[in-house]
Protein: Dipeptidyl peptidase 3
Amino acid sequence: MKRMSDELEAAAHHVANRKQKDMIDRYVSSFSRGSVPDHEDASRYWIKDKGPVVETYIGFIESYRDPFGLRGEYEGFVAVVNKSMSSKFSQLVDSAQEFLPLLPWGVEFEKDKFLRPDFTSLDVVSFASSGIPAGINIPNYDEIRQNEGFKNVSLGNVLSAASQDKRVTFLTTTEDQGDFTDLRGKAFEVQVGLHELLGHRSGKLFSKDKNGVFNFEQDKVINPLTGDKISSWYNPGETWDTQFSTIASTYEECRAECVGIYLSTDRNILRIFGYEGAEAEDIMYVNWLSMLRAGLIALEFYTPETKKWRQAHMQARYVILRVLMDSDTPVFNIESVTGSDGKPDLLIRFDRNKLETIAKPVIGEFLNKLYTSLQQMLAQDSYNKYSTVTDDHLMLRDTVMARKMPRRLFVQPHTSTDTDGSVVLNEFDSSFEGIISSFLARYPNNDTELESLWRNDQHYWKQK
Ligand SMILES: [Zn+2]
Structure:
């Protein structure tokens, strides 16, 4: 902790503003005196420092690893704003009023005014922790969160690292394989932007406030599912989460994913992301193909013994696969074949000519049902129906599990300064050798101080 404090004191000379200086001072005093209130104060300065180019947070943060769920794991990260991604995202938000009407529900189902999200895309330079999250929502001090705020950021390169993986299963033609590995990163960027910025942010929940005032025109709005007037809504204190605990989050994730694929067919949106002509068409196709493939791989996250889904997004993608499967005109099929290794394999064949004519309207109709019922506080039975894994799909799951790829390794870069003072990014191979080289580069000499701390620690626990 002493070394930590010394480094932080050195960092305090390079801050961008007063809040960052105050934050670091509190970290130092927290780490050198063991003071939690000082760490809380550091967190207060941190949330007040809005949208910095370099973002960093450090301390005993998440309690996931503690069996008691109390003790925070020591972690710290440094990330920088991804300016080009953030500018595409803000253009999309600026044009939200133009794109929201493309969604399959009428204006009366939209908010009167689009609430501009505070959404920054950061790239991690270094995240020191047992696991690297794709997004963060901290500090965890409840009192500060409730009364003073928190930060919510997406860690873009954690997500995109996944799409650089060249290993692709379950795709048919070499053409699909090629398009997929080349374009899935770009397609994913479009999908994430649409999911977060227009997906979760579109629409309004019909509600009545404590004075009995409705946020919609009760005698004018017609329920598209029944053709009757709206007869249910949220009362004060009720939210989608409180009313529909177990399916609440997957249902909403499914809505955002559907909005993503649905709007990814819009050429103007693709243009905002910088794609036109044949490339734009291919990205659209790869985005839908990715969704189908994700719906199949989702079966890894289903436990047949308990008949339960373990991950909200994966359940949502499986539902999308099932909805498309139910289309009167087939748009894709999953073929059971023998792989080149002689073992069972699966191939997805998606007819790209039917993407806009058949698949898009099918998703639009489903999305409309899904959302308009959410607005009226009615859950759709069809969500549970589509989430129920069929016997056929349990058989597909065996192949999916057998072909499951080993967990990816994240090997993070180091930064160092050159003789002329410029910063150098040193990257390592994503392999065990890469991890070892990265440690050797970080700790080139035997560190007797660290070693003796480690030995004392072992000795201490043996005595306990
Ligand atoms: Zn989401």
In short: Residues 174-199 form the longest helix (26 residues). The first strand starts at residue 54 and ends at 60. The mean pLDDT is 89.
